[in-house]
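>> received
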Amino acid sequence: MDRKDFLKKSCSLGICSCIVPGILPVDTFAGNENSESSWKEGFVKHRFSKLIDLMDENLTEETRNKILENLGRECSNRSGIDKFKNDLQGFFQHLKTTLNETATYDKERGVIRVETAERPCFCPMFDSQNISESICQCSVGWQSQSYETILGQAVEAKCLESVIRGSSKCVFEIRLFAE
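>> returned
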């Protein structure tokens, strides 16, 4: 018996301890590739949401936020943001054309404001209907790292509104530190 057959049979008999009955549909282990990708995606989203719940339950807010912000920073580092170094307006244009997001910079106050379009949460790692509000700190980390990379200076990002927290869009404020 090969590995795939073993997993199909084991899990259908309830032997697989990592899949709780009722989480996955009966045809989860059907043989076609799309079904396999689909159940994996659902499983990962569920597992990631559960991890965030466990972090909420077991970590201080400060520790949890630091972890999630670092996760967002890593995502930014892997996004190709380097191509916008010293090109803030180019990045704003990129946000507008690719994501329909609006970004403005109030130079006098040293504040960038980013507003997404009205849409579900952008992150593919979870189902936005089943995730803790604390996940928004991941986006705060992404915003921080992205603008620090683009501007070459430290910033502080805050999430003012988010879809996860009940708004129809996400709004971020990024404050530049005086040089």
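>> The first strand starts at residue 102 and ends at 106.
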